[in-house]
Amino acid sequence: MIENNILLSKFIKNNLVDYDLLLEDDWLDKQIKMIECANLEKYSKKEKLVFWINTYNIIVLKSVIIEFSKNSNWRGNISIIGKFKFFIFRKHKVSNHYLSLYQIENTILRKEFNDPRIHFAINCASLSCPYLPDRLFDVDTIDDYLEYLTHEFINNKNNVIVMNNILYLNRIFKWYKNDFDSKGGLITFINKYTNDKLIFEKIKYFKYDWKVNSS
Q1: pLDDT band at 176, cuts 50/70/90?
Q2: Beta bridge partners of 76
Q3: pTM, whole model, 2 decimals?
Q4: Hey, which bits of the chain come out as E strands?
Q5: Contacts 24+ apart (CB under 8 A), 166-170
Q6: SS3 helix, strand, coil % of the chain, rounded to 5?
Q7: What is the reported pLDDT for 4?
Q8: What are the residues whose beta carbons fall under 8 Å from the beta carbon of 132, sequence distance 6 or more?
């Protein structure tokens, strides 16, 4: 299991990541090495969920550092080819297999666990993504933490807001609508967590900001 021996908050300032500080620390490299040689055969389903969420977030951090090492002025995955390289083409060693971030998210996290709250727990290093959690997930608190992160995301007016009878939503709700439909429907899911009852006539989606979440 990945060691939860440090708060990620050490590297986070105002919900943005200090990648320079992260690069200076050896913590990330230690996590990557544990991911590469992890043996998941004896993990429970909950332990696997914890592992894969943490793995996704850690690999994203490492991938951003790789991009900055190639181009110190890298602005994020703002081009289509950039997204393909970052999420699909680049493979990472995980438990002696080589997987892309796309595979981890879609063939493992979404398919095997079928929990829409995962979308608010994983961070793709963009400004419109859910904020990077300030600590790694652990088995004892994962359900409570997923609930907390979902509530925080939905009650952030940058992600969910009604204006002039129009419900504006983060595009995560559009891209992964089927995941929410499988749990009773998108609006039902949002209303479970929102502090205010949603009254609207139609839905629109915010433009997604792919610029890197760097402090």
Answers
A1: very high
A2: 211
A3: 0.95
A4: 12-13, 16-17, 92-94, 97-99, 160-163, 166-169, 202-205
A5: 166/200, 166/201, 166/202, 166/203, 166/204, 167/198, 167/200, 167/202, 167/203, 167/204, 168/203, 168/204, 168/205, 168/206, 169/203, 169/204, 169/205, 169/206, 170/128, 170/205, 170/206, 170/208
A6: 50, 15, 40
A7: 55
A8: 8, 12, 15, 17, 57, 61, 123, 125, 213
> Which is higher by pLDDT, 176 or 182?
176
Residues 6+ positions from 183 with CB-CB distance below 8 Å: 116, 189
In angstroms, rounded to a whole number, what is the distance separating the alpha carbons of residues 53 and 197? 30
Alpha helices in 98-213 (DSSP H): 101-103, 111-113, 142-154, 172-175, 177-181, 186-193
- How far from each other are the two terminal CA atoms of the chain, in whole angstroms? 29
Based on its alpha-carbon atoms, the radius of gyration of the chain, rounded to whole angstroms, reads 17
Q: Is the pLDDT of residue 186 over 60?
A: yes
